[in-house]
């Protein structure tokens, strides 16, 4: 078996279906501030998320951006891995593929707990988030955080130059990371993947419906990396 392959996986929208945990967070904020919440489809819409990240959205007296890290730190128990993620991770690990999870958001410890609950924590040589940067990378763009963390992860898990490298994600930051690392970029349509361009270089090299099909791309028909 040739173990010369590494896969860097994004978390939110790629492995993690975060919609329920995010919705619960928003509902709890409305309850605490004694404000009626908008419909679920509004809360889970991209415009709502952009209003949060821009700092414009307030619920009662709370600026939501000031609390949004609670989603990853306190609500991970309500998150689930996308269907097919566990067998895909297990198959890649069994084939000798090195795996790392890199997120530009926070929540390293809850992420490790989530992976362990799903029986795949041991498959990852490194799990890193913005929590692992000094000062949590205050003010640094997602793409820059991902590149810094991914380079650290590659060193930690022993990825040598010349080995095959894949970056898997659902956002433009994931595509930018793959291009920076000279990796093959795999996009998924889960999460925000529906907004990714269809073709390189702005889009991924390969687009999949979900991470469940990742084994086909990484291992190919021969079943070896």
UniProtKB/TrEMBL annotation:
Its EC number is 3.-.-.-. Keywords: Hydrolase. It is an enzyme of class 3 (hydrolase). It comes from the Bacteria. InterPro entries: HAD-like_hydrolase_sf (IPR050155), HAD-like_sf (IPR036412), HAD_sf (IPR023214), PGP-like_dom2 (IPR023198). The keyword ATP-binding does not apply. Transmembrane segments: none annotated. One of its GO terms (molecular function) is hydrolase activity. The keyword Coiled coil does not apply. This is HAD family hydrolase.
């Amino acid at each position: 078996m040739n173990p010369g392959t590494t896969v860097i996986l994004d978390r939110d929208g790629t492995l993690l279906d975060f919609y329920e945990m995010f919705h619960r967070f928003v509902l709890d904020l409305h309850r605490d501030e004694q404000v009626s919440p908008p419909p679920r489809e509004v809360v889970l819409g991209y415009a709502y998320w952009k209003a949060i990240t821009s700092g414009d959205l307030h619920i009662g007296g709370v600026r939501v951006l000031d609390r949004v890290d609670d989603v990853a730190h306190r609500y991970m128990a309500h998150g689930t891995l996308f269907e097919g993620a566990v067998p895909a991770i297990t198959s890649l690990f069994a084939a000798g593929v090195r795996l790392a999870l890199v997120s530009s958001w926070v929540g390293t410890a809850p992420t490790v707990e989530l992976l362990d609950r799903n029986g795949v924590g041991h498959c990852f040589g490194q799990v890193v988030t913005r929590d692992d940067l000094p000062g949590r990378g205050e003010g640094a763009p997602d793409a820059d955080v991902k590149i810094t963390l991914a380079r650290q992860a590659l060193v930690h898990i022993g990825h040598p130059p010349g080995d095959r490298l894949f970056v898997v994600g659902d956002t433009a930051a994931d595509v930018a990371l793959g291009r920076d690392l000279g990796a093959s970029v795999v996009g998924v349509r889960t999460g925000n993947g529906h907004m990714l361009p269809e073709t390189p270089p702005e889009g991924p090299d390969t687009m999949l419906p979900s991470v469940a099909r990742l084994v086909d791309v990484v291992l190919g028909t021969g079943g070896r990396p």
